[in-house]
Amino acid sequence: MELDPLQRSAAAPSIMSDSGSSTEVDEEDDAGGEGEARVAVPLTLPATWAFSQRRAGQGSAATQSSPVRRRLRHAIRVHYSSQTATLPRGFPNFVLRAPAAAAVQPSSSTEASESDEEEPGGVAPAPPAHPRLDGPGENAPPDAAADGQREGGDDGAPAAQPPPAVPTFQSEEGDGNTCSICFEAWTAVGDHRVAALRCGHLFGFTCIQKWLASQRAAAKCPQCNKKAKRSDIVMLYTPKLKAVDNSHHESLKRALEEEQSRRRKAELESAQCKLKLQMITTKYGQAQQELQEIRAQMAQGGGATAASAAVPASSSSSSHLMAPYKYSQAVVVSANGGCRVVAHCEALNCLLVSQPSARAVLLPGWGVKKVSLHNSRHSQYIPIHSAHIRALSFNRQNDGLLLSASLDSTLKITSMPSNAVVQTYNAGKPVWSCCWCLDKPNYVYAGLNNGSVLLYDIRDTSTHVQELQPLRSRAPVVSLCYVPRAASSAFPCGGLIAGTLEGGVFWEQLDDNTYKPHSLPLEAGGCTGIQVETESRHCLVTYRAGRLNPMVRCVLMALTRTPQQDAGEPPGCSCSPVQTFSVGPCCKLLTKNAIFPGPHGSGALVCAGNEATRCTMVWEASSGALLQKIPSDLPVLDISPFAVNGEHFLGTLTEKIVKLYKWK
Fold first, then answer.
1. CB of 562 within 8 A of CB of 521?
2. What is the H or E stretch that residue 24 is in?
3. What is the pLDDT of residues 561-574, one digit of tens each?
4. Do 617 and 610 meet the contact criterion of CB atoms below 8 Å apart?
5. 530 forms bridges with which residues in the sheet?
6. pLDDT per residue as tens digits for the range 326-341
7. 346-350, 426-430, 561-565: least confidently modelled range
8. What is the rounded CA–CA span in Å between residue 623 and residue 303?
9. Angle at CA 589, nearest 5°, toward 551 and 267?
10. Domain 173-246 has CATH 3.30.470.20
11. What is the torsional sign of CA 130, 131, 137, 139?
12. In the chain, which segments carry CATH 3.30.40.10?
């Protein structure tokens, strides 16, 4: 049944614009007369789907309409004509329409821009006509449809043109040669080599690693937002991948690192050479000073006689001027270090060396190791304190009682025959030094870190008997030495010499409970210790290096008693310098030096440790001549002279080893 043009126009479906579409296609209505032959076009698979409804005979339109732009959704949509009053009675005609297969990239989900430029003239190319599904020739093969298209209509109309290709969409991800995180080119090797996630997107290895690490548990792919983790990163090894060849850059980087390593090594060697040069310069200065002293003595022609009057010396001392001590043996006390002080026990003929416990887990704290002088292999550790031991002292009664001072604020008395602590005193402050009273063996002294000196009676186990308050400063008492009373016209007094970091005080003992302080004329702020030689009534004061004196000095001073000035005031006590010994440039470890009578009446000797050169220096006290330099592996911390069976020894202690030297 034929329909008039008015009915055909009313029944024609209209194209509705959809603003939410993701793809946009231009379409023209078919134009042609009624006698025009229908052209069959082969079906193609679409990238986006759409269905439209047409009535029978719509392919022959009377007039050609202008192109209408329509959006197609990723879904099935049916558009009915808004001008049709009633729905068609026949079966709806669905036409499958699709652009070319290469029209839309499969991996792109981006909408095409609505402002795409149209063809010149404002008319888009017309898509091919599509056959009805229920019309004749619906099952015709593509070749037959193409033949019918070439034959044309009865009125000699030209054949329909093949469908034009829909322009492809441009990718928004760039040319595929750069990382989408840092926008830098991938490399074939190195940290920025190409890597992929499980979703397939490519990134630089370091970039995607940092990206996932920054997001932690909520890590996602930067492009598709799929969940990802660091174990999903896979480095790609493909020869077809276009990557920047950075092998030259990596080689330069390695060369730079090697150059920096060589530079650091050269700087270290330079620092070591500077240190060696400084040590050589120091030795040269000492040699120059010794040479000047020798020249002065030679010019004076025996000018050492005046000094020998203050310090008694034997005429046979000149025979011992060259290397009087010879190496005997070395005993390893602590392999881990930590030794600080050493003392000799005449009753047991052994050395006591302080050290930390070798089994700190089972037996923590500090104690002493008892080393036998008959057989150095026989040694025994005795635990005493819970903190560092600062001083050790034996009394003259040879009863084997060891007095020890520790930073754990205790003063303890230990019996060496039984290896047990027999008395403990709590001083309330860290104890830096201690000594026995040589006039009254029942009294002991403890020097505290606040400058006070506590007097204890070993018969009273409760608390201290008396406290000697400091005169001026409250610096720690680094040394305590008792000077016994003697029938000497120069210094007959007895008392305690307390050496602090700020100076020294002599506490003269007038009676059992009365002590009179006498401030000694020492240099302020440089004293590190005072040792006393009781027979000659001399003391050795050690000064650290300072601005005025760049060298560590040991000054031998004679204790003197000043005459009485007023009738009601007793005479005072003081000291005067006799000899000065230059030790070295530094004194950081507070080495305990020593002054003691020389063997076989050879005069007093002075021993001091040089931390810079790691040696023990031995001088003759009367003349100030340097007798010997005893080398050591480590800086010397303490010096202890002693005698065994008529033979004289000198013990030097480092933090690990005690070495014994025998007098020739």
1. no
2. strand 23-27
3. 877 666 566 678 88
4. yes
5. 541
6. 999 999 999 889 999 9
7. 561-565
8. 9
9. 75
10. no
11. positive
12. 173-246
